[in-house]
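Sample pair:
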Amino acid sequence: MKIYTKTGDKGETRLFNNLKVKKSNKIIEAIGSVDELIAWLGVLAEGTGGRGQRKEMFKKIQNNLMLINSQLAGYHTLNFNLETERLEKEIDEMEKKLPKLTNFIFPRGEIHIVRAVCRRAERRLASLSPVPHALSPLKYLNRLSDYLFVLARWTDWKKEKKELLWSAQG
C-alpha cells in the first residue's frame, strides 16, 4: 500500500468504516490533536524526561492515545477506565511528596507544553459530544492533563527548582 492515496488532495480522508469525511470534520480535528499529543510525548520520552520507568509510562500513554485515535476513526470501542485509574495512582504517588499547591504557577518546560496540547485534544474530543464512544477517552485525556501537570511539578521539585508563583497583582 502506498502512503499517498490522493484523497487528501480534495480535502477529504477516510475513516475505518470507509466513510469519506472532510478534513475539517470535528472527528478529524480530534484525531489530529491526539496525534500531535502522541508526537509531543515522543519528544518527552526521548528527552531528559524519559528515563527508565517514566519512559515506559510515556510509551504506554502513547499506545493508549493511538488506541483512542483508532476508536475515533471507527475501528473499535474501548474502555479506558483502567488506564485512567493507572494515571490517578501515578498522580497520587507524586502528590504525596510534593508541597501543597496554594497558588497558580507559571508553566515552564516541555511537560507543560505537552499538557497544553493535551488540553486542546481534550477540548476537541469534548466538541464531539454526545458521541458515546468519546466519553471514556475524554475522561482519560482529562486525567492525562492532570498527570502531566503534576509530573511537571514533580520534575521541577526533583531538580530542586523553585516554582514560580503567579499573583494577580503582578
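The chain is about 60% helix and 5% strand.
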